[in-house]
Write a structure and sequence with these properties.
The complex is a heterodimer of chains A (82) and B (680). With 82 residues, chain A is of the alpha+beta class. Chain A is 17% helix and 38% strand. Chain A has 2 helices and 6 strands, in the order ββαβββαβ. The radius of gyration of chain A is 12 Å and the shape is globular. The two termini of chain A are 16 Å apart. Chain B is 62% helix and 7% strand. Chain B contains 31 helices and 10 strands. Chain B has a 7-stranded mixed beta sheet with strand order 2-3-4-1-5-6-8, sandwiched between helices. A two-stranded antiparallel ribbon of chain B has the order 7-9. In chain B, helix 4 crosses helix 12 and helix 24 crosses helix 26. Classes of the chains: A alpha+beta (82), B alpha/beta (680). At the A-B interface, helix 1 and strand 5 of A face helix 4, helix 12, helix 13, helix 17 and strand 10 of B. Strand 5 of chain A pairs antiparallel with strand 10 of chain B, so a sheet runs across the interface.
Chain lengths: 82, 680
């Protein structure tokens, strides 16, 4: 099986795709807010709405959270194979 | 060892038998958990709204009777955690630690248990008895989620009561449990979350360094944990409390474990997973929830904007078909009638006293009150949209547009409120999390055309532009919004250097509105508006009246008129004579005063209505320029007072006034000269 690098920024997930959260590259304060909303390393994040531009909606721990594209781009996930 | 159980054991609840102190219950919970609904249900109208000391964050406190015994209920700010990301978290935890409530009721949502228990994982470590109100059982059912309260209670070790606050079910059970806890008949043994093993050693090291130096009322273990989480407030406190060498030691540990906050958060979520494992049954995969179906339209980048535009249209339609006629009716049948009555009643009194009462009090503050019906329409629509969960969608679809100004979606909501009145708009910026984004939103909020300004337009535009009045009005609104976007992006570039503020917002599940919550919100906002009209606005109206009356008792020769004549050369840039200049100045207490002033200055004419008289006195170019300046001018004094209150700074308030002066006079001159060049 060929090696596939599935590490992508969260905003590159298509609607319906899922990823495991790996790391944050945003500033501490933003990351802290995200963490209390349920974004912690290892959690499964589901892309609920992503039209390729503008803000997007993800579902994490059963909660729908709207993120700016900039914030989503600073979250690294491991894309899960469907 | 758990990271905070010592704290819980060492602090028994305040004994109720001692003294005559009224027991106090604090209501805690994340946003969108139905906390306010429960608060309103318990306290009804026995509540008052104030501010947390020194902060511009609403503090709601009320009282209610439980078996003939009076209880105080304090509504803590809705927060996702107790880590200092914003002032709200600090307020909530300081209250629990310092005021020592006899009971903390944590409101969580059955439809969103995992996320909502995060706050509980922090509350359970604080030295106060805890009861969980498992709210929104109906929404959970609607989303296909099953929760078993008894199982959750057994796992957490604290009482859990299932309820649906919007239907007032389960409240009796909650009160019964609350009473048992207050009476000391029910003692909990909470299961406390533990920090992950890889950071346990670091926590112990910090604890060793700070032990004995932690100021009251903070528990030592809790403080150590907050330091490890990088909590800004606790870091500041401990830095001041620790000797230099110890602080350096602590700092060294913290630098080494700078990712510990993620481990702490993960640890809490692992604890939550254990707590709910047996208590929650999730819906089958593939089941599409109501929220998801609605969001396919409401949060769609195109349809969503369409829906928002439709809602906006509906609000304006309501304003013009219901609000404005009622406002007009109040204005002629109440305010004018009162003025006539006052004039007759004071017929033998000195002229100045009659003027003071009739023109100052009734004409000034009274005319502001007539805007209440319009405000009620806005307040009600907002409270309704907020309560069903739509507002987050409006913010979401507007996010792109707001980015032009370096703002994000959350700033849209207060600005939207500004179409009704700029005052609640400025106050509404409190929901914006970053201070810079909030300040920027406050500074541009006065550029949203409010109903009072639209009233001036609605009067003058038909007189001067006849059939084209509608296009002129529409153009004026568009011009205001264009100026808003332009000044917003300029301010963002120049003053805030294009700083970005993060857009992170929960999209709550849709649910049926609760009439009580909406009603109380509208009631509170309306009474606070009326209070303002009776105090600040009244005082200012009297000042302006005095300036327009003295020394001679006539507006034409008053100080205000002299001032208008003095600065007339400036007014000329925009095509104004001294009368239009004075009208503009008197619009400061209330925008619609401009019409009243013109009415006084031109007197009652036998030849026709004020509108007709004005068309013979001024060119269309001057009229258009006057309307442009009115739209963009310094906001009314109530708004300026709100800006001062919310920014807490005269510097920013004066900056805002100066900025609006430049914008309005610039745009007014440009429009006047352009219109003249085109031959009007």
């Amino acid at each position: 099986m060929p090696f596939v690098n599935n590490k992508v920024p969260l905003d590159e997930l298509a609607p319906g795709e899922q990823g495991t959260l790996l790391a944050f590259t945003d500033e501490r304060q933003v990351t802290n807010r995200l963490a209390s909303l349920g974004f912690t390393p290892g959690v499964s994040v589901n892309m609920t709405q992503n039209y390729g531009r503008g803000p997007l909606i993800v579902t994490v721990r059963g909660t729908r959270v709207a993120l700016g594209r900039g914030e989503a781009a600073r979250i690294l996930v491991q894309k899960e194979q469907v | 060892m758990s990271d905070c159980h010592e704290v819980a054991v060492s602090s028994p609840p305040r004994s109720l038998s001692v003294g005559t102190q009224i027991p106090m219950i604090a209501l805690a919970g994340q946003p969108n958990m139905g906390k306010s609904t429960l608060f309103n249900l318990l306290t009804g109208l026995n509540q008052h709204v104030g501010n947390w000391s020194g902060k511009t964050i609403e503090r709601r406190e009320g009282s209610f009777k439980l078996d003939e015994r009076e209880l105080i209920l304090v509504d803590l700010p809705g927060t996702y955690s107790l880590t200092a990301n914003s002032p709200e978290e600090v307020i909530a935890r300081e209250f629990i630690l310092r005021e020592r409530p006899d009971l903390v009721v944590a409101v969580v949502s059955a439809a969103n248990l995992e996320r909502s228990l995060y706050l509980v994982s922090e509350l359970i470590c604080l030295p106060a008895p805890l009861v969980i109100a498992l709210n929104m059982m109906d929404v959970a059912r609607q989303e296909g989620i099953q929760v078993e309260p008894e199982v959750l209670e057994a796992a957490l070790g604290v009482p859990v009561v299932a309820m649906t606050a919007t239907r007032a079910t389960g409240v009796g059970d909650l009160l019964k449990v609350a009473r048992e806890v207050l009476d000391g008949r029910r003692v909990s043994q909470p299961r406390i979350p533990a920090i992950r093993a890889d950071h346990r050693a670091a926590l112990d090291e910090i604890l060793m360094e700070i032990e004995g130096y932690v100021p009251a009322p903070y528990p030592s273990e809790w403080s150590a944990l907050k330091l490890l989480e990088g909590d800004a407030e606790m870091t500041r406190i401990m830095r001041a409390a620790l000797p230099e060498t110890r602080w350096r030691a602590v700092n060294a540990i913290l630098t080494q474990h700078d990712d510990a906050f993620l481990a702490v958060a993960s640890g809490r979520y692992e604890w939550i997973a254990r707590m709910i494992r047996a208590a929650v049954v999730q819906p089958k995969i593939g089941q599409i929830s109501l929220t998801e179906r609605l969001d396919r339209v409401a949060a769609h980048p195109i349809w969503g904007l369409g829906i928002l535009a439709g809602i906006l249209g509906l609000v304006f339609w309501l304003t013009f078909t219901v609000g404005s006629p009622v406002q007009g009716w109040l204005s002629t049948h109440v305010v004018s009638a009162l003025a006539t009555l006052g004039r007759a009643w004071l017929a033998t009194s000195p002229l100045w006293l009659r003027g003071l009462v009739v023109d100052g009090v009734i004409g000034g503050a009274g005319s502001v009150i007539t805007f209440l019906p319009i405000m009620v329409i806005f307040f009600t629509t907002f409270a309704l949209l907020e309560d069903i969960g739509y507002m987050a969608r409006a913010a979401y679809v507007m996010d792109n547009l707001m980015h032009l100004m370096g703002l994000h979606g959350k700033s849209f909501l207060p600005l939207f409120l500004g179409f009704g009145c700029n005052v609640p708009s400025v106050l509404g910026t409190r929901t914006i999390d970053s201070w810079q984004a909030r300040l920027l939103t406050i500074l541009i909020a006065p550029l949203v055309p409010c109903t009072a300004r639209m009233a001036v337009v609605a009067f003058l535009a038909p007189a001067f532009f006849g059939a084209n009045a509608l296009y002129v009005s529409w153009g004026l609104v568009m011009l205001s919004l264009l100026m808003l976007v332009m000044s917003g992006s300029l301010l963002n570039q120049v003053i805030f250097k294009g700083q970005r503020s993060a857009f992170i917002m929960e999209m709550p599940l849709y649910h049926l509105p609760d009439a009580r919550t909406i009603g109380l919100l509208v009631w509170q906002r309306s009474t606070s508006f009326v209070k303002k009209a009776g105090t600040t606005i009244l005082a200012m109206a009297l000042v302006v009246w005095a300036l327009s009356f003295f020394p001679g008792g006539e507006l034409q020769t008053s100080y205000l008129a002299r001032f208008g004549q003095f600065i007339e050369p400036v007014g000329r840039w925009m095509g104004f004579d001294w009368r239009l200049t004075v009208a503009l100045i008197t619009s400061f207490p209330a925008k619609e005063n401009a019409i009243a002033t013109l009415g006084v200055l031109f007197g009652s004419s036998p030849t026709g209505s004020l509108g007709q008289v004005l068309t013979t006195a001024f060119s269309p170019a001057s009229a258009l320029s006057f309307l442009v300046v009115t739209m963009l001018f310094i906001p009314c004094m109530a708004t300026v007072a709100a800006v001062r209150q919310e920014t807490g700074s005269w510097k920013w308030t004066l900056f805002n006034v100066g900025m609006l002066l430049v914008i309005s006079m610039g745009a007014g001159s440009a429009v006047f000269h352009l219109a003249r060049a085109l031959g009007y």
